[in-house]
Design a protein that fits this description.
Chain lengths: 375, 345
């Protein structure tokens, strides 16, 4: 089996195909700390792409509450259990990826969710990790905690869906690395649905073939960000091109967060897919849990994020999130403002690092009335 | 000369014996064979339970788990398939019967898989060695023709398209883009405009798996190697499957000769390589997760007897060989008598 380099686990690994990288790679960063699980992203995606017959159970984008929420049911804990112990040593993953742990005659370790597993998209919603004792008070991290995990297809560099499709009906686009199912060639075998650890390849109950998140490629082709990103009212998301560390472009917002400041981390890097959606981990959550979910970069990411007020560049990029529906190729922070530029170098976003404060006099001379904040 | 003519039958027998001992015919006879029995009259083209099948000899094909390529099947749930075939000089029909304790006629829910069965034919008339190389779904440049019967297609034809409202009886959704009619709606009628179909992507791009208006339960496919199976543009197969008392009875039929160059053509001058596969839906068997047989030789019976390839001797058809042999013998013997007569004279 060919060997490929997976920078997220710090080593080479087995993969059914030779490494082949696109010209550019679609990526995104989601700041978990800012998400309120309003599901506007979920609904934007649903309205755009999965409002058809047979797609009722499909959420190409969903937001679930951790630790107990999951859609489909137990997607992550079931695979973690199958995979067994996962250990790291000095930033190198020493356990097995899902490709290395694949049973004979399979491309990857995995399972096919049962029908009932798709029945509860809000399972575990807003449930906290434990019970709150009398007299409890907040410390950091929180003794009783929960957080929201926003999930779309990771458009992986080493996709398990693609690796497992015996028909090669799944492909990674040369121009942007977006992973797509060829709807003319899919025959509904659901090998992709078994192998994708994130369960983002889904079976359509009436067309009887599988479908998946398309990263809103018609928008990306026009230099725009995805619907889930541009609809986010909490401005937690940003799209951008992402590179391997040796080719990082540090004035590109996603690369800056992933490789520059290393505050944005891959989801379950130990699965071995070299994912391309990155998360800023929630700083209030105990690190034992976060280490399992986001790998050994967690302490640095949490620490860096906590010091954001002293880091104008990092602050600038975080403020550019949700500042434009256009695709930000490059950013710059100068004189108290963060600027976003498109591929042509034109300015498409400008945000102040500090919101200006306006003090309104309590007496309005024009109307002769006093103004109050209270009714 | 009259004495020589007395010996001609003996010479012919000798020549035939020589031909029979040559490799071509001997090899063909050593293979297990399926005979498509000639039946003058109406054939049970879509009737797997017709009494016509009672008198047709059964060829028992062993099937084993697919293990050549991922995803493999770990353990078989079906071990053999009974195969029969009839033809009437116009059409040909095959019947497959196999044991399956559960009828799996749906592929609607995300974890439901259909029962299915397939016949595979080598399109070209290849020798045994060449044929062996293309057992697994053909090879580059070597086309195989597959006839794939699907239990869910059969259900849709027999009972109407199995929609989400059938799989989930309490299902309700008020609206779909560009739908007509009243909730809970029905496929295909309420979604038949181009705009509505755009939200049923597989259907709108012409994927035959996704078309809810089924015409036949048997899909006509071509393949040239692993992962290349493709639905043909011309779909000309008939068939029907019935599950009864723990057994599937499935027929597949077609005219002997079709206009499609991707189809196997059942002409009288050749033998046919045929292989079988079955899928057990309740074991989540689909695609490469299947039980399959090795190649079997199939011969067509006609009004006049078994048709098939002409055995070859020294690279030429046996008839030509015998004719040439007889002519040579005649010339030699004739020359002998001529010389002898001249000598006497």
């Amino acid at each position: 089996m060919p060997k490929v380099y997976n920078w997220q686990i710090g080593r080479e690994m087995n993969y059914p195909y030779e490494a082949a990288y696109p010209e550019k790679q679609f990526g995104a960063v989601f700041d978990i700390n800012k998400c309120i699980a309003c599901q506007t992203c979920t609904l934007a995606c649903k309205n755009a792409w999965t409002s058809g017959r047979g797609q009722e159970h499909m959420f190409w984008n969903n937001v679930e509450t951790k630790p107990y929420g999951s859609y489909p049911l137990g997607w992550d804990v079931r695979l973690l259990e199958q995979l067994g112990g996962q250990s790291w040593s000095n930033g190198v993953y020493t356990g097995k990826t899902i490709f290395e742990a694949a049973p004979p005659g399979r491309a990857a370790l995995g399972f096919l969710p049962e029908d009932e597993d798709w029945a509860h998209p809000n399972h575990g919603e807003d449930e906290v990790a434990g019970t709150i004792d009398r007299g409890a008070y907040f410390t950091l991290p929180h003794p009783v905690w929960m957080f929201y995990l926003q999930r779309i297809c990771n458009h992986c560099s080493y996709p398990a869906c693609l690796a497992s499709c015996p028909r090669k009906a799944i492909y990674k686009r040369e121009e942007d690395g977006i992973v797509l199912i060829d709807e003319t060639r899919c025959r509904g075998y659901r090998e992709c649905a078994r192998a994708c650890p994130f369960k983002k390849a889904l079976y359509n109950t009436v067309t009887r073939v599988s479908e998946k998140c398309i990263a809103c490629y018609p928008l990306v082709e026009q230099g725009r960000q995805t619907y889930c990103t541009l609809s986010c009212i909490g401005r937690i998301r940003i799209n951008g091109w992402v590179h391997f560390p040796d080719k990082a472009v540090l004035d590109s917002p996603v690369d800056f967060l992933v490789h520059g400041r290393k505050v944005a981390l891959p989801l379950y890097p130990q699965f071995g897919l070299n994912v391309n959606i990155y998360y800023i981990p929630p700083i209030h959550v105990p690190q034992e849990f976060l280490l399992q979910m986001f790998g050994p970069g967690v302490p640095n990411a949490v620490d860096t994020y906590k010091r954001v007020k002293d880091d104008p560049e990092l602050l600038g990029v975080l403020l550019l999130m949700g500042a434009t529906d256009k695709w930000i190729e490059k950013f710059r922070v100068k004189e108290g403002f963060a600027y976003g530029y498109d591929a042509k170098g034109d300015e498409i976003a400008k945000v102040p690092l500090k919101e200006p404060i306006y003090i309104r006099p309590d007496f309005n001379a024009a109307t002769g009335a006093f103004l109050h904040n209270t009714p | 000369m009259t004495r020589f003519f007395k010996h001609i039958p003996l010479l012919a027998i000798l020549a035939l014996a020589f031909a029979l001992s040559s490799n071509g015919l001997a090899l063909a006879q050593a293979q297990p064979q399926l005979i498509s029995v000639y039946n003058d009259g109406e054939l049970p083209l879509t009737d797997p339970k017709s009494p016509a099948w009672d008198s047709v000899p059964v060829y028992a094909a062993s099937v084993t788990p697919q293990s050549a390529i991922a995803p493999t099947l770990f353990a078989a749930t079906v071990s053999s398939v009974e195969v029969q075939s009839l033809n009437n000089g116009e059409d040909i029909v095959f019947r497959l019967v196999w044991e399956d304790a559960s009828q799996d006629s749906h592929a609607t829910k995300p974890d439901e898989f259909r029962d299915a069965a397939a016949l595979q034919f080598s399109v070209d008339d290849l020798d045994a060695e060449q044929t062996q190389k293309i057992l697994c779904m053909g090879a580059a440049g070597q086309l195989v023709n597959l006839w794939h019967w699907k239990a869910d297609w059969q259900w849709d034809i027999d009972n109407g398209f199995r929609d989400v409202v059938d799989a989930y009886p309490n299902f309700w959704l008020d609206h779909y883009p560009f739908v007509v009619g009243e909730p809970p709606f029905r496929l295909p009628t309420d979604f038949n405009s181009e705009e509505a179909r755009a939200y049923l992507v597989g259907w709108s791009v012409g994927n035959p798996l996704s078309n809810p208006a089924r015409v036949t339960p048997v899909e006509d496919l071509s393949s040239m190697g692993f992962g290349t199976v493709t639905s043909q543009a011309d779909q000309g197969l008939l068939g029907r499957g019935v599950w009864e008392d723990g057994k599937w009875y499935v027929v597949f039929s077609r005219p002997l000769v079709s206009a499609d160059e991707n189809d196997v053509q059942f002409t009288l001058d050749r033998a046919f390589s045929i292989a079988f596969a079955v899928w057990d839906g309740s074991d989540q068997q689909v695609g490469a997760r299947k039980q399959l047989s090795t190649w079997t030789t199939m011969l067509l019976e006609t009004e006049k007897g078994i048709a098939g390839p002409t055995p070859k001797v020294l690279g030429m058809p046996i008839g030509t060989f015998i004719t040439i042999a007889v002519v040579i013998v005649l010339v030699v013997v004739g020359a002998f008598f001529f010389m002898r007569r001249r000598k006497i004279a």
